[in-house]
Design brief:
about 500 residues; binds pyridoxal-5'-phosphate
Length: about 500
């Protein structure tokens, strides 16, 4: 594979075009005269290319990508399951893909019904009373949920509640969302079994507690066993309880956060409900609430009255936190989630969770003899390996193992997360993988560990050897990203 690839700006040749427009058959307008003040002084410096150059450029880029359509993608906490193609067929139907968000309600009844029905199905799956589909991602859903919690406390004149409690096993977005929403984040420790330490939590209770945010299964892949005691403890102190349900793949159809005392949750439709989301593609962080929070849901709320679906605005929902996303969120993701749920049905969703948990436990057992598990006993949909001993013994870090896996043809697991496990490797096989795929992956991991033990760290430092770029300087790339083409003249 050619190591470097020219950008479109480098391939560009002045005057080359990829289109053929008909002759102008209306009088030409001088944009500079007619639109004074709105017109650019000079034309934008766009690359000029033939159609074939553009197609080859993007096809070339796509071949350097790794996707779940190409191979196993066990990226923990991300649920990179296979996305059935029927979802794509539905999302591309012109009645969904070619409508405009400002069309009159009467002309988009089907799209409104889809969102109305999807909300109802998600409410049923999670045990909540109502669901908004507006947030564009999981973290955005967290912020939306916390804004509703804040509005709830303030509506009761309860202004002392400034604290959001987040366990040290929570997903990293939880404390970030609490901070963005203006809360102070307080951490509660996990006990030896990887569960929230209930006594430590009880000691933190006072009238400044606004909420507890719980990631469940937590980032160790463990179901919080004391969950009812946790929600009761927070409620007794006057706080509300937030459920981070981004990893609902483990419990869907089996257990409902709404039945465990949670007041608000988010789901990642782009994870559990099957939308391609590698590389930061569009997402949907649906948020479900119990009745206490229904008045605060973002507007417009999609309602049904007199035989028609309609958009309900702030006049009907005066306590609403308002709009959190333009129009209706990422509608295409909603169509995919709807199609996915309707295709599988209730039994199918249950089977998804069962198989996801079975696959994770199967793979964990196969790897346990070469890698200690961060948590003993059964896991849910994912598990965390502790690479500390391998690093100590051979000098081969989890980063090295991840790079070696790329050469073996796999997307690596999540590394160095959660932070509470040294040299963590977080593996989520998902339900869509066959036993043969899991066996092959386990064999690749065994081979890597055997090589580390036989040859030490040296041969690993140049890996991956099969990719156009091997080991980028990740720190500089993150701190000093170069995100746009620099023209030679300094622009
Ligand atoms: C992925 C994930 C999130 C964040 O979701 P985004 O869509 O990436 O914002 C939050 N919590 C958990 C547990 C997750 O796995």
């Amino acid at each position: 594979m050619k190591r470097t690839m020219d950008t479109l700006f480098e391939t560009s040749r002045p005057g080359r075009v990829g289109y053929a427009l008909p002759e102008l058959d209306v009088p030409a307008v001088d944009c500079g005269e007619e639109l004074k003040g709105f017109c650019r002084a000079a034309a934008p410096r766009l690359p000029e290319l033939a159609e074939v150059d553009v197609v080859r450029h993007f096809t070339g880029l796509s071949k350097r990508n790794y996707s779940v359509d190409e191979g196993f993608y066990p990226l923990g906490s991300c649920t990179m399951k296979y996305n059935p193609k029927v979802n794509e067929v539905a999302a591309r139907m012109p009645g969904f893909s070619r409508i405009h968000p400002l069309q009159p309600e009467g002309t988009v009844q089907g799209a409104l019904k889809l969102m109305y029905d999807l909300s109802a199905m998600l409410a049923e799956i999670t045990g909540m009373d109502a669901v908004t589909l507006q947030p564009a991602a999981g973290a955005h859903g967290e912020q939306t949920g916390l804004m509703m919690i804040k509005a709830y406390h303030e509506s009761r004149g309860d202004h002392k509640r400034t604290k959001v409690i987040v366990p040290d096993s929570a997903h990293g977005t939880n404390p970030a969302s609490a901070a963005v929403t203006g809360f102070d984040t307080v951490e509660v420790a996990s006990d030896a079994e990887g569960m929230v330490d209930l006594d430590a939590l009880k000691a933190m209770m006072d009238d400044s507690v606004a909420a507890l945010m719980l990631t469940n299964p937590n980032t160790l892949g463990v179901f919080e066993r004391n969950i009812l005691a946790l929600t009761e403890t927070i409620h007794a102190a006057g706080g509300l309880v937030y459920y981070d349900g981004a990893n609902a793949n483990a419990i869907m159809g089996k257990a409902r956060p709404g039945d465990m005392g949670f007041d608000v949750l988010h789901l990642n439709l782009h994870k559990t409900f099957s939308t391609p989301h590698g590389g930061g593609g569009p997402g949907a962080g649906a948020v479900g609430v119990k009745n206490v929070l229904v008045p605060f849901l973002p507007t417009p709320v999609i309602g049904f009255a007199d035989g028609a679906y309609r958009l309900e605005h702030a006049d009907m929902h005066p306590q609403s936190i308002g709009r959190v996303r333009s129009f209706f969120g990422n509608f295409g993701v909603l169509v995919r989630a709807y199609t996915y749920i309707r295709t599988l049905g209730a039994e199918g969703l249950q089977e998804v969770s069962e198989t996801a948990v079975l696959n994770a436990n199967y793979l964990a057992k196969k790897l346990e003899h070469i890698y200690p598990l961060a948590h003993k006993g059964y896991c849910m949909h994912e598990f965390v390996l502790n690479g500390g001993a391998l690093k100590h013994e051979t000098g081969v870090s989890s980063l090295d193992v991840a790079k070696a896996l790329i050469d073996a043809g796999y997307h690596p697991p999540t590394v160095y997360f959660p932070l509470i496990v040294p040299e963590a490797l977080m593996v989520e096989p998902t339900e869509t993988e066959s036993q043969e795929t899991l066996d092959r992956f386990a064999a690749a991991m065994e081979e890597i560990v055997a090589k580390a033990k036989a040859e030490g760290a040296e041969p690993f430092h140049d890996m991956p050897l099969t990719t156009p770029v091997s080991r980028p300087d990740e720190t500089t790339a993150a701190r000093n990203p170069i995100l746009r083409w620099q023209f030679g003249d300094g622009e």
